[in-house]
Amino acid sequence: xxxxxxxxxxxxxxxxxxxxxxxxxxxxxxxxxxxxxxxxxxxxxxxxxxxxxxxxxxxxxxxxxxxxxxxxxxxxxxxxxxxxxxxxxxxxxxxxxxxxxxxxxxxxxxxxxxxxxxxxxxxxxxxxxxxxxxxxxxxxxxxxxxxxxxxxxxxxxxxxxxxxxxxxxxxxxxxxxxxxxxxxxxxxxxxxxxxxxxxxxxxxxxxxxxxxxxxxxxxxxxxxxxxxxxxxxxxxxxxxxxxxxxxxxxxxxxxxxxxxxxxxxxxxxxxxxxxxxxxxxxxxxxxxxxxxxxxxxxxxx
Length: 301
Fold this sequence. Notes:
Elements: H1 4-59, E1 74-82, H2 92-103, E2 111-116, H3 121-124, E3 132-137, H4 145-159, E4 161-173, E5 176-185, H5 192-197, H6 219-222, H7 229-300
Parallel strand pairs: 1-2, 1-4, 2-3
Antiparallel strand pairs: 4-5
């Protein structure tokens, strides 16, 4: 049983912890609002570039991958893992770790890893421990999202990798997020049936229902284009890939901040509950000591 001095020390310690968790709770909410505003700026552009991508795919399916160099394509697969930039965000990594363990598989191709965040080892663990890391960004903020996405996609386009898969948490609402696997490259690599079978949220499917959405007239009947159609398609595909990755990173970051807010809010409430119990116990113990001293004084009188 604690004596009164030990109880006081515990109360002081928990009070300091409560102040820290409350401050981190406010910081998480501030960052959440900032990233949410930044994500709202990305959304209209992503919707427009996605529409342009669909239009280009309807005119002429993009069978060839992007080629920005004349080098022989690298027959390797890239795995991108997005974790949190900092800790104290509850079960943010646990759900993604289980999902990654379930979905990760080797297709016989050499694999390399791109790590985003400081806690990627909590997700990949031993599964990717032996793989080569070709890029690692420990810090992911609202100001660096687009630059990181652009750097990663340009690396992918330059090296001409076989395929690129991204594992991250997708933002659902303030109280929920879900792990997901997205094919970033090639965007036209999966059919609609493949996407359903693998339970992927593939934002653009190669196979389109032509009877429900008949193809529009060729570009030369609607637009006046100075560049060849193939160059326009390649540029649209590149911008769409960068915009898609930017949005996915923003969703992961906003999910991280909401998870951190909920975790710190729960920690603050638990600290308040613990303080109430300790203060009550301390007051009872102090009253017991006072009663004992009064009784001893009464005997001596």
